[in-house]
Design a protein that fits this description.
The structure holds two protein chains of two kinds.
Chain A lengths: L1 E14 L2 E14 L3 E5 L6 H8 L7 E6 L2 E2 L5 H11 E4 L11 H12 L3 H14 L15 H13 L5 E5 L7 H18 L2 E6 L2 H6 L2 E6 L2 E7 L2
Parallel strand pairs in A: 3-8, 3-9, 6-7, 7-8
Antiparallel strand pairs in A: 1-2, 1-4, 4-5, 9-10
Chain B lengths: L1 H9 L3 H41 L2 E5 L16 H10 L5 E13 L4 E9 L1 H5 L4 H4 E4 L9 E5 H7 L6 E7 L5 E12 L4 H6 E5 H8 L7 E5 L6 H11 L5 E5 H4 L1 H39 L1 H9 L4 H37 L1 E2 L1 H7 L7 E2 L5 H28 L2 H6 L2
Parallel strand pairs in B: 3-8, 5-7
Antiparallel strand pairs in B: 1-9, 1-10, 2-3, 2-6, 2-9, 4-7, 6-7, 11-12
Helix pairs in contact in B: 1-13, 2-11, 2-13, 2-15, 11-15, 13-15
The chains are: A alpha/beta, B alpha+beta.
């Protein structure tokens, strides 16, 4: 069974009187536990596709099903619930809540899920330890490096055991060695927890880590390679 | 954690937070402190009104108020006085008095005055006169020729203690009756008009001069608690249902003051709203700025699964914290300002010449009422939350994609 299914997704943006076709008839399916890169140049539709898979945006037509739930049949509140319980996000920048510490940032999703404080704290500490931030619990985002911030974001994305983690160019603002370290952590989590990772990139090094690379060009799937 | 987050968020931009806090603090202080001054002025006016012979309740012959002549006296107040003793609550005081228009004259001057015949002991517990004599002495119970006059009248007549003053009025036989009194005391009152108007002699002296035997013009009652006014007046009316007497509360006896007090409540409410509108604009403006600055953050929160309502709640929680802090400091400042003035008051002597005509005391003491403090705080809190709803709703309405794309 596929954890994510996209069927004939179309999306057009309106910028004043100009219409920009972001996605044209995209159909894709993602296996559970896969580590997938969406590659392509800027404007190819990577972020739009991630936003639609994550329920942040709606397709004009077509169908997205995440872990058996179709976004197009849900209202805003139901989509928020689905994001909360099934989807983890890692963004390129501005990933963390600046007024919360690393530990609190990771706890935050579980707070929204209504988990008791003791359990939240334990799970947040465990996951921060796993991403190598055992000494950084109380640091605010401004006191962490870019790589450390992204590791906190990864920890937050997977701490609630989501069905998928969507990462929009997670290494774009990091130097190559820090980016590599982050990818290794993501890969490790993917293998250890069997969480599906779908991330966008135009960096070949990042694509090397993926076991499947989907190339988008002008809003369409140009190539889809399963590497192993 | 929501509370912690809200608290940290409001201190992300301390300067902006301090500006909002100042707006709230000044607003609350303004409402409570100026409210207390207004209430103090009202309390002074009521006190002056009541203690200047009015009392909380007065009883007259039914025609006295429309025609205050000696014929409209209560000829035999004995039954009434016995009933009053029975009906009045514990701590209440009363005094019967004669009160008629008269002419006061000496060798050089004459002036229209109100002759008040009093029982010195009872009257001292009911009206200001017992504590108001500053020169000479107060009246003795059997003082048949002593008179106490106001300082202003004394100065106007160019006379002094020990000199004679002749009072002339119409007696029960509709004849002009006059009697020479000797000035034994001079009183001071809050208002110069009072000093000019009232002259005090003993009740027997006035009754003898006016030939009304045991008759009196009015009974003035001071109640321990003003709230008993209507209930006590109603009990007295039930006792004397035959329409021989008229029983009025001070609100009926002082209609201008009563109307002013009602108006004053309305003005205070309008003042609260004006202050709040100025403050409200500040709150909306700065909260809206804060919301737009944090647009990406709201996008992130939504992406993480926060529902619009939760974001509205978070922004409102920040407003609640700001309002509570501002209200707490505003209240403390108000209480400090009021307590600083409660001893000495504000001296309005330079304005007293004008102020006395509306019954305002020379010294204004702030008076704080729980009701006013609660209303001021409620206005700030409830309306503060209402105006914060707009920026909060704005934050709740951003879609995650547009918010995250915001730079």
């Amino acid at each position: 069974m596929h954890i994510v299914e996209c069927v004939d997704i179309n999306k057009t943006y309106h910028q004043g009187k100009v219409e920009v076709l972001a996605l044209k008839g995209v159909s894709l399916a993602f296996e559970k536990g896969s580590f997938v890169a969406l590659a392509g140049p800027s404007g190819s539709g990577k972020t739009t596709l991630l936003n639609i898979i994550g329920g942040l945006d709606l397709a004009d037509s077509g169908r997205v099903v995440v872990d058996g739930n179709a976004f197009d049949k849900m209202n805003r509140s139901q989509r928020a619930d689905l994001r909360l319980n099934k989807v983890g996000f890692v963004f390129q920048s501005y990933n963390l809540i600046p007024v919360l510490s690393a530990l609190e940032n990771v706890e935050f999703v579980m707070l929204l899920q209504g988990l008791p404080p003791a359990e939240r704290r334990k799970r947040a500490k465990d996951i921060l330890d796993e991403v190598g931030l055992e000494d950084m619990y109380d640091r605010r985002p401004a006191e962490l490096s870019g790589g450390q911030q992204q590791r906190v974001a990864v920890a937050r994305a997977i701490v609630s055991n989501p069905s998928i983690v969507l990462a929009d160019e997670p290494t774009a603002n990091l130097d190559s060695s820090t980016g590599k370290g982050l990818l290794e952590i993501m890969k490790q989590m993917n293998e250890k927890k069997n969480v599906t990772f779908i991330f966008s990139t135009h960096d070949n090094m990042v694509m090397d880590y993926a076991d499947r690379v989907i190339y988008l060009r002008d809003g369409m799937v140009a190539d889809d390679r399963v590497k192993r | 954690m929501y509370l912690q987050m809200a608290w940290r968020n409001i201190w992300r931009n301390p300067r902006r937070t301090i500006i909002i806090l100042l707006a709230i603090i000044i607003g609350v202080w303004n409402m409570i402190f100026l409210g207390a001054l207004t209430r103090g002025m009202e309390a002074g006016m009521i006190k002056n009104g009541i203690s200047t012979l009015t009392g909380n309740i007065q009883i007259h012959h039914k025609d006295y108020r429309t025609d205050p002549v000696v014929e409209n006296s209560m000829a035999d107040p004995g039954a009434m006085e016995a009933a009053i003793e029975r009906i009045l609550p514990r701590g209440a005081r009363w005094a019967g008095r004669v009160r008629v228009n008269a002419i006061a004259s000496n060798a050089r001057n004459s002036s229209g005055v109100t002759l008040v015949g009093i029982d010195p002991e009872r009257e001292a517990q009911v009206s200001f006169i017992g504590q108001a004599v500053e020169q000479g002495r107060y009246l003795m119970p059997k003082d048949m020729y002593g008179i106490v006059v106001g300082k202003t009248l004394l100065d106007k007549f160019g006379t002094k203690i020990g000199h004679k003053l002749v009072l002339m009025s119409q007696d029960m036989d509709r004849e002009i009756s006059s009697r020479a009194f000797r000035i034994v005391g001079v009183y001071r009152a809050e208002m110069a008009a009072t000093e000019k108007e009232f002259v005090f002699v003993t009740l027997p002296a006035a009754q003898q001069m006016l030939k009304i035997d045991k008759g009196i013009s009015e009974i003035s009652i001071i109640l321990p608690d003003q709230q008993d006014n209507r209930r006590t007046a109603s009990a007295l009316k039930d006792e004397f249902f035959d329409d021989t007497y008229e029983i009025n509360t001070w609100r009926e006896l002082l209609p201008i003051l009563n109307a002013y007090l009602k108006l004053s409540d309305g003005f205070m409410l309008i003042w609260y709203l004006v202050v709040f509108i100025a403050m409200g604009f500040g709150i909306v403006n700065t909260t809206l700025m804060a919301v737009f600055e944090r647009m990406r953050e709201f996008g992130l929160l939504k992406a993480l699964g926060m529902k619009p309502w939760w974001i509205i709640r978070e922004v409102l929680l920040e407003s609640v914290l700001l309002l509570l802090m501002g209200m707490a400091i505003g209240n403390i400042l108000s209480f400090l300002s009021i307590s600083a003035l409660s001893g000495s008051g504000i001296d309005l002597s330079s304005l007293a010449a004008g102020a006395e005509y509306v019954g305002i005391s020379r010294i204004l003491y702030p008076a704080i009422y729980v009701r006013d403090v609660v209303i001021a705080n409620l206005v700030v809190f409830v309306l503060g939350l209402v105006v914060s709803t707009y920026p909060a709703a704005k934050a709740g309405r951003f879609t995650p994609v547009e918010a995250l794309a915001h730079t």
